Structure formats: C-alpha cells, structure tokens
C-alpha cells in the first residue's frame, strides 16, 4: 500500500485488487478453496466494511487535495494544464481520470473547487 496515492487504477487492476483481497481474507480465515462459500459470506465472517480499493481511493483524494493546495508544478501536471504536444498512441490514464470514474464526472470539478479548505 506504500505509494498507492499515485497509482492509476483501471477496471482491470481494480478487479485484480479485489480478487487478491478476497484471497487474503480466505487465507486468514482458513477457508479452503473447496468450501462453497460466497464472497459475501466471507466478508460477513471477517466483519469487513471497507475494501482495499475504497481505502486506496480515499488516500488518493486526500493526496490530490494536498497537491492542489500546494499549487506548484504538481498542480499543473495533475490538472493537465501543461504546455506541449501529446505523445503518439493511446494516452495513459491519469489520476484525474480514475477519480472521475470513481466519483462521477461532475464530482471532480467540485473537489477541485473545494480543495482549498483542508477540513472539507
């Protein structure tokens, strides 16, 4: 989890993280792979309320607020207000794109507007 604030999480990576988390839970609870238990039952047995992906997204929004309040080069790079030409080929997914899919398209602009207040 070290450095997860700067990860870009696509749908494929999110599925892998959730699968790995479920594998860890089953190992910790000593549930054999032959047992026919659904993921919901395993989560209920573990009293798990917060998932790994949700924790990563919360850290990412906190880190984004830190970058936006700082207002230096990282702010320009993160928001995409950087001069120059784009590279050829398919563009890489950015942190803002991942947050837009997680929060919804209108929510990212709200976050950028309210990022000045640290308590929010």
Written description of the protein model:
- 5% of the residues are buried.
- The chain is elongated.
- It is mainly alpha-helical.
- It has one domain (7-114).
- Helix 5 packs across helix 6.
- The protein is built from 6 helices and no strands.
- The model has no long low-confidence stretch (mean pLDDT 79).
What sequence of helices (H) and strands (E) makes up the elements?
HHHHHH
Helicity, in percent?
Answer: 55-70%
The rough form would be described as: elongated
How far from one another are the termini?
24 Å
Largest sheet: none
The total tally of domains equals 1
- The average pLDDT score comes to 79
Number of strands: 0
Q: How big a fraction of the residues is strand?
A: under 5%
Structural class, by secondary structure, is: mainly alpha
Number of helices: 6
In short:
The chain is mostly helical and 120 residues long. It is 58% helix and 0% strand. This is UDP-glucuronosyltransferase 2a1-like.
Question: What order do the helices and strands come in, and which of them pair?
Answer:
Layout (H helix, E strand, L loop, with lengths): L10 H18 L10 H7 L6 H19 L2 H7 L15 H9 L1 H10 L6
Helix pairs in contact: 5-6
Please name the defining characteristics of this protein.
mainly alpha, UDP-glucuronosyltransferase 2a1-like, 58% helix, 120 residues
